[in-house]
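User: Could you check the structure of this?
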Amino acid sequence: MTTPDPNFSPPEPSSDEAVAAPITPTVPPGRPPRRGVGPLQLAFAVVALLAGAALFLSGFTLGARTATTPGTPSADQALFAPFWDTWDSINRSYVGQVDQKKLVEGAIDGMIKALGDPYSLYMSPDDLQRAREALDGQFEGIGAVISARSSAAAGGTCTTLGPTCRMTVVSTIAASPAEVAGLRAGDVTTAIDGASVDGLTLDQAIAKVRGKKGTPVVLTVVRAEKALFDLRIVRDTIVQTQVETRDLANASVRYIRLAAFSDSAAKDFTDALQAGLVKGERSVIVDLRDNPGGYVTAARTIASQFIASGPLFWEESADGTQVATDASPGGVATDPGIRVMVLVNKGSASASEIVSGALQDTKRGTLVGETTFGKGTIQQWVDLTDNSGGFRLTIAKWLTPAKRWIHLKGLTPDVAVAANVGSTTPTGDPYIDAALKALGVPAATEALPRAA
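Assistant: Sure, the predicted structure tokens are below.
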């Protein structure tokens, strides 16, 4: 399926991703190398939690815990006593085979889960690889964007799937196995290959749906509270077109749909925008509907095409420090005479909200559609050593230029479009119709298929 939430999370693009930069291990002078963690630099927002991860892999002498234990500071000996007692007992007394590497990975997984944060999680090497492939727009799966949605009246995201936290389809990728099989936005999956999803996290459920090209997966689906039914879907290699363009209103308006925030998509978006300006198009419709987010760097690149200077967003760290990320110079559409409309809906999350919030707060763009998803945190991804996979960790809140924190609230559109409004003429897309009306230009004469 498709991760990043918001809310979603890789392995299949889900709607909850604002990602920062990778990290690789570093060893301070005079200290033995740590084997559990290190800084890595990508282009997401995710940082290291395992500052003392060496205590999982260091040579602890069984039955003897001292202040000289590698990786365990003397001040923390009492705190870690239960951990080492357990480690010691397993290695000394367990009658089965002990895979110490799996014990370490399980300990890391447990630490991350103990945070209770739906966006922080440990990933095995395979899961980590699939997550990165999904963010780059190519992966093996069924081609659906999903989220963990609360069934409460207020909606919003949730952590553990069950009766009040449902695995919900946000959208399907055009011509994907999911779309061909008949999976629809709003469908709720209750079981995968006959096994209930209750008790799983969204990422665990996604891992079960994803798999090798050519293999089948059966989803048990409930649609609009009707009777359950099974959908058999054969997995394939999904190549997602991340940027689509059209000319509207007699070639006076450039329409650009952005499906995800990868670095390549940011470049393609800029090229598409520049091409429209060269043709004399002075109005732009940016379609961020059902875009679950991606790299923060890509969000900065795209917002900077319209905003010449000043903060695009603020990052607030754990200690309350706020640091601004300013617009990059050289944007191709910073002329205020170029009008910008941004299409959003409840599937617009994370990096999509960073761009939308920046354009709204700076009065550089008009938001058209529904209230957005509401993911106001940034994650950083960390690679662990010894091929132990990695983890992503929530390291900051992000705030709009006006320092609004939209987490669990979303951005309110300037021009509202009802989610259940039927198709209208002439475009067949009420969001585009509303944007064209706000621009005061005649609508296109041809019907426009809605990109998914």
